Amino acid sequence: MRHRFKTKAWLYLTPALLIIFIVIVFPILYTGYISVTNMSLYHWSDYKVIGLDNYARALFKFDSVFLSALLTTVLWTALNMVIQLGVGFLIALGLNTPKLRLKRVYKTLLMVPWAVPAYISILLWRVGMFNIEFGVLNKLLTLMGFGKVDFLSNNVIAFCSCMALNLWMALPFMIATIDGALQSIDRGLYESATLDGAGFWGKIRYITIPGIKPIIAPAAVMTTFITFKQFDIIYLLTQQRGYMTGATLNTVITYAHQNAFVSNNYGLSGAVSMLLFIVIILFSLLTNRSLQED
């Protein structure tokens, strides 16, 4: 009977496992294989295994773009997460003010950026907000007597512009998560703290933050993964073919894309992708261990 049950269970699992292998496992294994070859546009059919040369080129070459791209990726992820958590917490806290009216209206409006497809949002911001000739931001600067700014031509300004767009797109999820976590806290704790003489910041520190941490931590980790391997915003704002802006921003994922589909150096692109995969796995193990300890 038990053997029959196990056989039946494997029959049910087989289609899902097959899909996982085809969609996830096989591409990872094949990318790993390509990363140790010299496959490129010039060695499409006669490529050969060259060992770890591509990894050495990415990590140890003096003018390697990979290391600067990795630094940009880490900075991009860290700043975005800090700002998203901070702004999301403040807005969610404001939405949970007892005497605030029209809460549902505000919450609905805040979900709009999340409802719009990412590709559409990015193009709207690129043309409608950041365009040097007829973008909203430059129109406002002109009205105030300032000169026009090309928001996507300078690396620092382009980086900040990409962060602003990412904040607009990602904030609804963070607000919704923190808002739900805040509503799960027992209001009696705040009343008891008030009777004990606790002030606003005391309640935030000893009740609110510990109360929302178990819910926020997994959401923050998931958002960190998404932000770390984010491609669409930086690529569509600064690197899309036919719309090169002058900024030379590169994260690890855009650098891998550039090597694969612009330079056609598939071996190096595979090595960069595998290094990114290893970084994400290590970060995942560390965060899971940290969450389990908490």
UniProtKB/TrEMBL annotation:
Topology in the lipid bilayer: Multi-pass membrane protein
SUPFAM superfamilies per the UniProt record, alphabetical: MalF N-terminal region-like, MetI-like
PROSITE patterns to which the protein is assigned, alphabetical: ABC_TM1
Any one annotated GO CC term: plasma membrane
Pfam families assigned to the protein according to its UniProt record, in alphabetical order: BPD_transp_1
Annotated InterPro entries: ABC_transporter_permease, MalF_N, MetI-like, MetI-like_sf
Protein location: Cell membrane
Transmembrane intervals: 12-36, 65-93, 105-125, 156-178, 215-237, 266-286
Transmembrane found in the keyword field: yes
Main location per the UniProt record: membrane
Gene3D superfamilies in UniProt: MalF N-terminal region-like, MetI-like
Presence of the UniProt keyword Membrane in the record: yes
GO biological process: transmembrane transport
Keywords on record: Cell membrane, Membrane, Transmembrane, Transmembrane helix, Transport
Domain ABC transmembrane type-1 residue range list: 70-287
Entries under CDD domains matching the protein: TM_PBP2
Entry's family note: Belongs to the binding-protein-dependent transport system permease family.
PANTHER family: ABC TRANSPORTER PERMEASE PROTEIN, INNER MEMBRANE ABC TRANSPORTER PERMEASE PROTEIN YCJO
Protein name listed in UniProt: Sugar ABC transporter permease
Species in which this protein is naturally found: Lawsonibacter hominis
